[in-house]
Amino acid sequence: QTEDEELTVLSRELKQRKDSLQEFSNANRLDLVDKVQKELDILEVYLPEQLSEEELLTIVNETIAEVGASSKADMGKVMGAIMPKVKGKADGSLINKLVSNQLS
User: Which GO terms describe its molecular function (predicted)?
Assistant: First the structure.
């Protein structure tokens, strides 16, 4: 396995658990929230250090300029260019929010 494949698996597992955590919280299943939070804590140990929101914003702005994006219609093009740069180092939903804010 390559490091890239490992990051893909870790990122997918992290996302699944974050989604589960949200669902369990909404359902008030605190027993399951605790279990999933412990799993998240373990997974995060194996991920690269996460980028700060400021660092991400810089990458977002640079990528928007690189691809010549000017509106939300360019969202897919920007996301496609950004995600390989931040793989394993940032949450996709946060990136999506930052890109969306910059293109609005």
Answer: carbon-nitrogen ligase activity, with glutamine as amido-N-donor
